[in-house]
Amino acid sequence: MTLIYEPDDPTNWGPYLSAGDVLKLDEVRRALRRRDIPAAASYGEIFELTKVA
Q1: What is the spatial distance between Cα 28 and Cα 53, in angstroms, rounded to a whole number?
Q2: What total number of domains does the chain contain?
Q3: Taking the model in full, what pTM does it have?
Q4: Nearby residues of 2 by Cβ (< 8 Å), 6 or more positions away
Q5: Which domain holds residue 23?
Q6: Per the domain annotation, does 52 fall within a domain?
Q7: H-type helices in the chain, by residue range?
């Protein structure tokens, strides 16, 4: 995943993700909502957050 930052951008819309990365995130989100961990993991690493206090 690439975070794009253009300091000289006059629109001040940065940083932002590429369209391809947004589509990839959507696929991962759908897989996780289906609880399909192997499908989500095919796009990268999956971590579980655990509350400690």
Answers
A1: 28
A2: 1
A3: 0.67
A4: 17, 18, 21
A5: 3-41
A6: no
A7: 19-33, 37-41
